[in-house]
Write a structure and sequence with these properties.
homodimer; alpha/beta; FAD/NAD(P)-binding domain; Enolase-like, domain 1; 3 domains; 8-stranded mixed beta sheet; 5-stranded parallel beta sheet; 23 strands; 32% helix
Chain lengths: 519, 519
């Protein structure tokens, strides 16, 4: 279907995507400038975050691109199965948690567990997800001027050629961007109905789970587990490593970790650290999980719902076969800091090249590939980045933990709330957006915040936050830490009181101090 | 009561403050170092935000200070009657609004208007406010090393002398910091029971209002009005100027204003712009407000509750009498950019010197006075600052509006969500923390965001946001705008997806573009 000369409205796009998803339209959705005879600078194989942002950047630099995706929309798995539903569920978890703690006080009624439904939320998401999809197609075409072919899988022929629906397209470069998907652990019974990952949860859940066992201790485990628990589904996390103390999460401050994990336990979750799943039990459908606990004993938990919070693997084999690109032992394509693979003219970006599987990385990988393709040498180092996860809180961190800072610097000043030596249940602080009501009903639920300074250079080394409303700020804090922001400069900023992170005013209470000390 | 050698716990402080408030303890609460024979560098008359932060900074620079407050706690009106209860009420308003829009869907039950009570929230706040008070006393003494006398009014004798409970204290400098209070408009009946301001609402409300008329169109009018309405109390705002288009609010973008004010109307508030109150009617208690509407006709609204959203005035007369400090026609003390009054050695800070009556200004005024007193020439220009207000949303802005930018720059690029030409009810974006559920139920409630760039220098000129979770970030955006952050630098930041403000990723979609255009 040639859409080149048609401007569709949101509703028309939504309808078109729906018809493609149901199979009513099986032909490709094409926005290709057939009159343009100049060669493509790059074809992006995969139109998720990396492919779309890479395409936009290439366009911005005056290049010509084509992006191809098997789905009938750009944006990839994030708005379809991953970050967007996760954020919807996390907002629901926060809200249900809030309504539970405050049940039958003030204007809150009893919390009705029977109304809280995982499946309802999944259905709500599915009913609405094509609207953001529609927007991304619209924006990419009308605002960003991208060329794309959707609803059609690209087959890579060689380093300059891609075949889509029987047509061949050539380009100076290829950018591989097909992402990763859940990789089920090798446990008997893992294929049973009733075992879900974040993607199949969206596509296939057809009953209301009454009991949940999560296998794995990744971010996803904490995030989805908090949602299931908040929705009244008793949840057990079975994790080999202590939560938030895994290789995949860096710079997790121990005080922050304690606040978060204690908070999950406080909400009734069972967290089995050092436990190994042995078998998923069932007879045509999951009925339980057998595991070995940290103390060596075995235990079986009856459950009708198992959720995988283990890792993801890339779908790189077709590229290995067609191009011979070098991959690591898990199949992730190996690239340099310019996103160049081992094959000249072939780039790879996003989840396909490994951790961290975060949005900023995927998008900036795309931008990096685009810049290099357009002749600008540009390197992207994503070894350091701000990070976050959701439980029923926003949990955010950037820079060094207190322990890391003390290891690397002689003299460290820690500013935190509640201050060391004051229990969280005796102080209504931090009190700020999203935890104001808790400050007056349950002080221990108001969150935790910590900033770490090098006393000598007075520079901010790290910031850590559990609460609400500070996630957005940590993007900018990351930038400021890289620029070497000091406690004195923090103290001169203009806060918007009551600011969710109290870093500016707390820093000001120590700014100007000759020998910087804790607060 | 000499507390110099006593370390009180939070509970002990809370109890002590309570006993002082009820009059059981009438003597001053003293933390004064009587063994120290060095002179005071400054006495801060008033221990609110400015006095406390000024004291902390003076201490940090090695100076000796004394701070005196008539209340038995430091921190001033903010945690007692102003910003803290306002934030509690605004969080409640947001939550009630959320529960109303989602009533009887998903896990939400019917919203029970009968349970929603303004008075309950006031009582909840009053029952808990002494805990933050306790903390500020504790922190100021144990962590910051301040000297203070609380529960005792300071009388200024001359430019170096203050009398407190019959004792005289001398210092090199005085810092006046006694704030401002509501200034009722000159309307017949304004003194009737049933007319409240933000302070008397806390101290005196003894019934549940059923109908509200707000006189004035200040920030407070929008904030408290949104709360009253959310709590089921039908609210009318009577404002001479259009809301958010008053002298006291600068840099309000017209699109942001429209979204906010339309949102208030959508929630059932009556907003009468261009209306003048003529008389508060009542017979021993308020029964109505008579006003002249914009079209010249008169109208009377029956009501049992009138709330003042007009301005504030300082309590400066004692200082004029004792010192002869120069004041303006409203009584605000006049200072230069170092916070120096017309009387040598006498400084004034905070609300006492006029608008903006914001926390950042009060605190940084205190810091500025402290620096200058300690011999460091330091100027504080608060003519430009980030700003915010709450309705049932967080509304934040910094820098120039689109109209201002277009006036000052030849070529301006505007990046906004929803984009120009797309209606907010046809697009589920912005979808982000706090508005995820709305994205799937009521797209028109998801908020609004706009960033404005100078196309030539590529610098960020202004940012405007209606939603949730971006307030904290605007503190840092203000700093970055002052540093000249460009669209390309924004595009290289590491976003924490789904970030409440989408400025980083939207900027990245235009970063690198030779001729910067709208998005």
């Amino acid at each position: 279907m040639d859409l080149r000369n048609t401007v569709l409205s949101m509703d028309e796009w939504t309808e078109l995507i729906h018809r493609a998803e149901t199979g009513e339209i099986s032909e490709p959705l094409e926005n290709v400038d057939h009159d343009n005879t100049s060669p493509y600078d790059a074809i992006f194989v995969g139109g998720g975050a990396g492919g779309r942002f890479g395409s936009a950047y290439l366009q911005a630099r005056g290049g010509r691109q084509l992006v191809v995706d098997k789905w009938p929309f750009l944006g990839g798995s994030c708005p379809h199965q991953a970050c967007v539903p996760h954020h919807l569920f996390s907002e629901a978890a926060r809200e249900m948690d809030y309504m539970r703690w405050n049940a039958d006080t003030l204007w809150f009624g009893e919390f009705d567990d029977k109304r809280a439904s995982i499946r309802d939320l999944v259905e709500l998401f599915k009913a609405g997800r094509n609207n953001p999809h529609a927007f991304m197609n619209w924006q990419s075409k009308e605002q960003l001027g991208m060329e794309y072919i959707l609803n059609a899988e690209a087959t890579v022929i060689d380093a300059h050629t891609v075949e889509v629906a029987g047509q061949r397209y050539t380009a100076r470069n290829l950018v591989l961007a097909t992402g990763a998907r859940s990789y089920p652990p090798d446990i008997p019974g893992i294929e049973l109905p009733g075992v879900y990952d974040f993607a199949t949860l969206i596509e296939e859940l057809d009953y209301e789970p009454s009991r949940c066992v999560i296998i794995g201790g990744s971010k996803i485990a904490l995030e989805y587990g908090s949602f299931f628990q908040a929705a009244g589904c008793q949840t057990t996390i079975v994790s080999r490593s202590p939560l938030m103390r895994t290789h995949s999460l860096h710079h997790v401050d121990e005080d922050l970790r304690t606040y978060v994990v204690d908070g999950m336990r406080k909400r009734g979750m069972d967290i089995l650290e050092g436990a190994h799943p042995i078998e998923v039990i069932g007879n045509g459908k999951v009925t339980g999980v057998r595991m070995r606990l940290a103390d060596g004993t075995e235990q079986t938990i009856d459950t009708d719902f198992v959720f995988l919070g283990t890792g993801e693997r890339p779908h790189s084999q077709p590229f290995v076969d067609a191009l011979g690109v070098q991959v690591d032992d898990k199949g992730f394509i190996q690239v340099d800091s310019r996103m160049r693979t081992s094959v000249p003219g072939v780039y790879a970006i996003g989840d396909l090249i490994g951790a961290p599987m975060e949005m900023f990385k995927a998008r900036k990988c795309g931008m990096t590939a685009a810049r290099n393709i357009m002749g600008e040498p540009y390197e992207f180092d994503f070894s350091e980045y701000p990070d976050f996860l959701h439980t029923t809180y926003e949990v955010t961190w950037v820079g060094l933990t207190e322990a890391e800072a003390r290891q690397r610097y002689d003299d460290v000043a820690v500013i935190q709330m509640p201050p060391k030596g004051i229990r969280d249940d005796e102080l209504a602080l931090p009190c700020s957006e999203g935890s104001m009501l808790y400050a007056f009903t349950r002080p221990e639920l108001t969150g935790f915040q910590k900033a770490i300074y090098d006393s000598k250079t007075r520079r901010l080394l790290g910031a850590h936050h559990v609460g609400f409303g500070a996630k957005d700020a940590f993007q900018y804090l990351d930038h400021l830490i890289r620029k070497g922001i000091t406690v004195d400069e923090m103290g001169e900023m203009n806060e918007l009181f009551i600011n969710p992170d109290h870093f500016i005013q707390l820093s000001r209470l120590r700014a100007g101090q000759h020998n910087l000390t804790d607060l």
